[in-house]
Amino acid sequence: MKEKSKVLLKTFLALAITLSVFYIIFRNVDFFSVINILFHANVSYLILAAILGIFIILFFTLRWQNVLAAMDFTLPFRDALDIIMGVFPFAAVTPSIASDGMRAVFLRGKIRASIVIGSVLAERTLEFATLLMFLVIGMVLINKFQYFGIAGIIFCSILLIVYLAHVKINLPFKEIWNERLENIFLSLRILTKNKKFFFIVISYTLLVWIFSIIQILAFFYALGVKIPIAALLVGAPIAILIGQIPITLGGAGTRDAAFIIIFSEYATPEQLLSVGILFSLFRVWIPSLIGIYFMRKLIRAKGNVE
Fold first, then answer.
1. pLDDT tens by residue, 132-157
2. Sign of CA dihedral 43, 268, 231, 153
3. Where along the chain do its domains lie?
4. How far is CA 245 from the centre of its chain?
5. pTM (2 decimals)?
């Protein structure tokens, strides 16, 4: 009961922060202009974005499947896809990133929760490394280094996580907590030592974010905004990373504000907010609605097993 209350409290706080951020945004952005821009979006580009979204989810699934395989856990592709889709509804009602922890719930009894959470950490670490690469390439191409400090923070964070994965950590707590901590870093430690799986997982990570960048470009084009790809390589990683800060629902609000600030020289605030809304719609809300079917399927299956 206490856990349920904590979840509800976190969700309420995330909702309150999300609404507060949008309140601040709409004090400076015309609401009806945003609606008009979205209403006149180019459908062809939106269809392209939807197709790219399908491939992104498939790459997500294959990547996670291989992260678990590196630790000798065999999870069939269909089961992995069911879980990836089944956690999307939680992404719509919980802070960004936090929903990925639900994968452990659906695999309870098969794989230790700490190991599943560790597999998510490994994925995120490689994602940050990939986004850092895009950010640096973009800054070099457009010769703008104002985000060098952010790049440095990301780089240091990655180094710290990799370091922690390769050292023995003994906290002054019960042994079980040290064991859980060890399991959390296990995936990343194995991946950095296993060249075969590291290459496979990093390849899927690159595909995920190459397709993501193209998808965001499609959102801009759908709204009639022409933006240099190099500028997108700089801004998109930062906006995506800001959206993953677990303080709003699915990253909504913070990610939208980031789009408005970062790309202000290329489009109006109304157009940029529309891009942020399209990103949330195609990457969070539509998958979440479809994911309800998979979530119910997983819950029923788990109930039958228990």
1. 889 888 888 887 777 888 888 888 98
2. negative
3. 2-110+198-305
4. 10
5. 0.87
